[in-house]
Amino acid sequence: MNYWLLFFISLHSLFFGEHFLTFIIPCYNCEQWVEESIESIYEQKNLDCSFEIICTDDGSKDNTYQLLRSLQKKHPHMRVFQHEKNQGGGACRNTCVSHAQGDLIFCLDSDNLLAPNSVQALVERLDQTGSDVVSFGEIHYFTGDRVDVSTGVYSFPGEQVTLEQAVQYTDTPPWSGNYLYTKKSFVKAGGYPTDLAAMDTYGFGFKQLLNGCKMSYVPGTFYLHRHGIDSYYVRESAARKMTKTFCSFLLSHQDIFTKKTVKMLKKQRDLATQGKPGKDQIALLADKKIVLK
Predict the structure, then answer these.
(1) Could you tell me if residue 157 is inside a domain?
(2) Of all helices (H) and strands (E), which one includes residue 105?
């Protein structure tokens, strides 16, 4: 499928009301599992719209880019881009979206998998509810042999996620980042933040909600989230960098929080900066003491 054909498919979506879906996959040192992730997209046999796949290699040190180019020959829906130097997850996702022809975007991390015939339910929910963002209702954490090790289940009133819930619950779609959204909501949020390291998807989802985007989920649906690997998120959390980033990010929007919340976030940010004992971002969320005005 060449660029011109993708362009005309996008126009068809615009003028005839039919969706065109872009799957984006940010890639960094993922030659071990990215092919499996891509193949899971092709297991969406019931998808009722045309699609493309855009992968951006973020300066990998292994053979990820070479593998992607090889897979591109096998899959005509794929386009592959590359950062010569590593720029981080947010920049990598933004590069993918900048080349996207679709009015809908689904971000799939390179180590995760889609369950067969699962995405169509999200597209239908988006159309039925007028949502800007739609997530699976569950996350199934798995090991390399696809054995479930645990399950996260969203359970919010009206099957919707609010900004308040995003700052008071440890399991919300922004923390996952693997969900469907409109390109318009991407523009509203200003794209993925590039200064939040492994928190880029949380920052993006937070800003979607902050800018009035409607976020919902579909109960009983799920994707597969790879467990037990030395991911970017795991490394940042272990070094307590995530706590500092989390608190600093929320403080950049301190006008929407109570004075008590701002004081608490500043204290925890400073403790993390100084390497002193304090609460990590998970504990801060679980305490439900991050309060909006």
Answers:
(1) yes
(2) strand 104-107
Amino acid at 148: D
CA–CA distances in Å: residue 248 to residues 193, 240, 254: 13, 13, 10
- 187 and 227 together in one domain: yes
Helix, strand, coil fractions of the chain, as percent rounded to 5: 45, 20, 35
How many domains does the chain fold into? 2
Same domain, 199 and 279: no
- Using one digit for the tens of pLDDT, what is the confidence trace for 128-147? 999 999 999 999 999 877 77
259 plus 221 within the same structural domain:
no
Assess whether 189 and 260 both reside in one domain.
no
Last residue of one domain, picked from the residues 217, 232, 247: 232
Q: What residues make up the domain containing 44?
A: 3-232
Q: Please enumerate in sequence order all residues whose Cβ is within 8 A of that of 156, keeping only pairs 6 or more positions apart, or say none.
A: 162, 165, 217
The pTM (predicted TM-score) of the whole model is 0.92
Angle 17-23-24 (CA atoms, 0-180°, nearest 5)? 130
In sequence order, the 6+-apart residues with CB closer than 8 A to the CB of 13 are 19, 20, 49, 50, 102, 103
Q: Write out pLDDT tens, residues 24-76.
A: 999 999 999 999 999 999 999 999 999 999 999 999 999 999 999 999 999 98
What tokens were used for 138?
Answer: 């569950």
